[in-house]
Amino acid sequence: MMPKKIAAFGEVMMRLQVPGHELLTQADTLKYSFSGTGVNVVSALARFGHAGYLVTTLPANPLGDAAVAHLRRLGVSTDFIRRDGKYVGLYFLENGFGPRASRVTYANRLESSFNTAPAGAYDWEAVAEGLDAVHFCGITLAMNDAVRGHMAELARAVKRKGGLVVFDCNYRPSLWGEDGYAKAKPHYIAMLNLADVALMNEKDAMHILGMMTDRSIRREQLVELIPAVADSYELAAIAGTHRAILGDGTHALQGFLYKDRQFSFSQTLTFPVYDRIGAGDAYASGIVHGELTGMQPGRTVEFAAAAAMLAHTVQGDTPMSSEADIVRALTEAAGDIER
Question: What sign results for the dihedral spanned by CA atoms 279, 95, 140, 245?
């Protein structure tokens, strides 16, 4: 395989996790690490053998130094990281248990070095040079107009140079606030018009884009709406997942990929969950890997679904599986000891 050069534009955040299944109101210690959608996607792609770059701004202080050191350990190139400002965004994670869902609480986002980088801060032509693909997400899109301007400029620069633009909708209600779907819609439309590949499902089409359907079954809604989205925004491919949480607490996940006017679906995977955060990023990395290496759509969606499944089994946001690990999960029974 010829390695590809892939970048992601996004914020590096500090994850502060409560031990075990305690609540913030109970705990007196927190474990920190660094993550973010872009971090997760490009580090996963680096594990698949590609060159992964993060485009971001980190503070010019020891906190930024720690984040850079963490990225380097993940195999992420730091060539396009600016150093300016004082802060990183934070999020606090409380792990759910049984009927109690996990909870993420964001803090300090608006003041972070990434979200306060001014217009003209980045050299987009230099960043875009030689890129095979660039990844953006809706979490970044939710921040402010300056960040949205950066996203559009980089996307256009990559398209001018023949690279692939990937946009993961990743809608988070807490980031958009009251009437969030209405606020988000024009910005999502702008990014979809720049994208070649989108990560989304029928709920995004209905709630964010305002598309209508008379269907009540999710699979039927998907099959009706996703082709219409692809046609409206001239997208080469759309991928996403359907998830169900079963009565015993295990999760069932099925991936889909719409490409060349046809759907491909993965088998439905059922598994226990150790850490759910970041599994969608693992799925996205599998789709990007398949697209860039010329996998058949059916193989791509099976690979991406297996990548997402394995991400649920590892502590932390960042996917840690190699391509060989994922292929093994597709073909072999799990749970034994490797010797």
Answer: positive
The DSSP bridge pattern shows strands 251-259 and 5-9 to be unpaired
What values do phi and psi take at 53, rounded to 5?
-120, 140
How far, in Å, CA of 220 to CA of 131, rounded? Answer: 37
**CA dihedral for 280, 282, 283, 285, sign (positive or negative):** positive
Band (pLDDT 50/70/90 cuts) for residue 333 is low
Q: Residue range 167-196: average pLDDT?
A: 96
**Nearest one of 55, 107, 115, 120 to 85, comparing CA atoms:** 115
Tokens read off for 187: 């910005």
Cβ neighbours of residue 247 under 8 Å, at least 6 residues apart? none
pLDDT digits (tens, 9 = 90+) for 269-324: 988 888 777 789 999 999 999 999 999 999 999 999 999 999 988 877 788 888 99
* Pairwise CA distance, residues 307 & 328, whole Å: 11
Contacts of 89-93 with C-beta under 8 Å, sequence gap 24+, read 89/11, 89/13, 89/14, 89/114, 89/115, 90/13, 90/14, 90/16, 91/13, 91/14, 91/15, 91/16, 92/16, 92/17, 92/18, 92/24, 92/30, 93/15, 93/16, 93/17, 93/18, 93/277
- What is d(CA 102, CA 302) in angstroms, rounded to the nearest whole number? 27
Q: What order of strands is seen across the sheet that includes strand 13-17?
A: 31-35, 13-17, 89-94, 103-107
Structure tokens at 124: 């987009």
Given a contact cutoff of 8 angstroms between Cβ atoms, the answer to whether 167 and 192 are in contact is: yes
Burial of 54 (0-12, 13-18, 19+ CB in 10 A): buried
